[in-house]
Design a protein that fits this description.
- There is one protein chain.
- This protein is α/β, with parallel strands linked by helices and 239 residues long.
- The protein contains eight helices and twelve strands.
- A five-stranded parallel beta sheet has the order 2-1-3-4-5, with helices on both faces.
- A hairpin with a 2-residue loop joins strand 8 and strand 9.
- Helix 6 crosses helix 8.
- The chain is elongated, with a radius of gyration of 21 Å.
């Protein structure tokens, strides 16, 4: 069964979806705003997101674009809008499927099963890829999987992209402008964006900016990823 995030501000609809999806043996978390949805996706792993477009803090179409900036999780848009041009735009912006309200739980379950089959089929059909290794880190760019000392890392889409990009250049200081251009696909931007993602990534690697192990920031220059330094052995006591 799937781990589902329901993003819906209508409490009646939200409660019904939670109850029916839970009865269908899915694990469900729910939020009522776009910002809460972004926070949930950044910190928890989901198999599928059911995204309402009529959210109180941010239009669902904008929320979809922001979600696509941090995760590849399949997104099913739930909308009262049945305009074909709007639906095409949503699909082009990264939605995997859509449902026009009102819809039945059987219909939603069928659409969820379809997008999950496509996602799993794509992963199973992927050819073997070169695994990047930096110290205890192992990063598989094709399967988008990362491990630290054999333990899986639960990374968001952008955290993984940042780690993989740096892992392809171990020991090389990468300028922030290059990170924005290659990882964020932006020709300009706020350095705080990089700092926030570095902070989240450091936390998952078990380090801090004050006590780095893998990620090292050179102020005014850039960022590099390198293996932790080997501890210097204690000298043996003399006779």
């Amino acid at each position: 069964m799937a781990r589902v995030l329901v993003v819906e501000d209508d409490q009646f609809v939200r409660s019904a979806l939670i109850r029916q999806l839970t009865e269908a043996s899915h694990t469900v978390r729910s939020v009522g705003t776009a910002l809460e949805a972004l926070r949930e996706v950044a910190h928890h792993g989901f198999d599928v997101v059911v995204l309402d477009l009529g959210l109180p803090d941010l239009d669902g179409a904008e929320a979809l674009k922001m979600l696509r900036g941090i995760t590849d999780v399949p997104v099913i848009v739930a909308t009262a809008r049945d305009d074909e041009a709007e639906i095409v735009r949503l699909l082009n912006d990264g939605a995997d499927d859509y449902l026009v309200k009102p819809f039945s739980i059987a219909h939603l379950s069928a659409r969820m099963a379809a997008v999950l089959r496509r996602a799993r089929s794509g992963a199973a059909d992927s050819p073997p890829s070169r695994v990047l290794r930096v110290g205890g880190l192992a990063i598989d760019p094709l399967r988008r999987q990362a491990e630290l000392d054999g333990a899986p890392l639960d990374l968001t889409r952008r955290e993984f992209d940042l780690l993989a990009f740096l892992a392809e250049r171990p020991g090389v200081v990468v300028p922030r402008k290059e990170l924005l251009a290659e990882v964020w696909r932006q020709s300009y931007g706020d350095d705080q964006t990089i700092d926030v993602h570095l902070s989240w990534l450091r936390r998952k690697l078990g380090e801090t900016a004050a006590r780095p192990r893998y990620l090292h920031t050179l102020r005014g220059v850039g960022v590099k990823l390198e293996p932790p330094a080997e501890p210097v052995p204690e000298p043996e006591p003399g006779p």
